[in-house]
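Colleagues,

For the teaching module next term, I've prepared a clean inverse folding example: a structure given as tokens, and then the sequence designed for it. I'd like students to try predicting residues themselves before seeing the answer, so please don't circulate the second half yet.
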């Protein structure tokens, strides 16, 4: 007895159509280029690490407390330069008085260690993302969802996985000075105001 092999031409055509549509577009996921410039700079510094040097002045002014974290040192009145015994420079108020207040540390440069959350977030969840995409492709081929819904499902899923990774990130740890300047406390290097987390999104192009 022979074996009859049948071919579902309609399904093959649908598969080819879906694959062609998928190849015609791509999806960008992360902190996208339409975010504000400061957010993009911060995201890039954390994702790849950064060596920061002053551009328009001799020193970087590092705030020494929450009170000064949101203020530019140029706009704070009554500051004087103070040099410690070990040679460190500070901007202080009430210099040489009993109530002398240390407001800013003057640094020649600072190094931000790499804390990848986009690339590392994808790498950690690679298998889950691949399984989800395969399932979504199958649903599209079977007509359960359209292409717009496919991209929406994949985009939302990937954004969620990266956000989860960012929230759970705990290394490299923050410096004691950075911890002291945090608005909402906590030790997660990338979560303070949640601005970075909320800016993660996707776009089909």
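(Answer key — instructors only)
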């Amino acid at each position: 007895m022979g074996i009859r092999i049948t071919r579902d031409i309609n399904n093959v055509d649908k598969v080819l159509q879906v694959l062609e549509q998928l190849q015609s577009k791509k999806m960008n996921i992360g902190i996208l280029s339409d975010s504000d410039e400061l957010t993009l700079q911060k995201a890039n510094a954390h994702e790849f690490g950064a060596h920061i040097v002053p551009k328009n002045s001799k020193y970087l002014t590092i705030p020494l407390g929450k009170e000064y974290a949101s203020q530019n040192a140029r706009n704070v009145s009554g500051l004087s330069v103070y040099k410690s015994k070990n040679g460190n420079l500070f901007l202080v108020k009430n210099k040489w008085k009993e109530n002398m207040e240390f407001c800013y540390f003057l640094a020649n440069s600072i190094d931000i260690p790499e804390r990848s959350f986009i690339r590392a977030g994808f790498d950690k969840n690679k298998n889950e993302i691949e399984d989800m995409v395969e399932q979504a492709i199958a649903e599209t081929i079977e007509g359960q969802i359209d292409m717009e819904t496919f991209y929406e499902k994949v985009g939302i899923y990937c954004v969620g996985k990266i956000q989860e990774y960012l929230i759970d990130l705990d290394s490299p740890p923050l410096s004691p000075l950075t911890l002291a300047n945090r608005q909402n406390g906590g030790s997660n290097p990338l979560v303070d105001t949640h601005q970075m987390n909320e800016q993660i999104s996707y776009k089909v192009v």
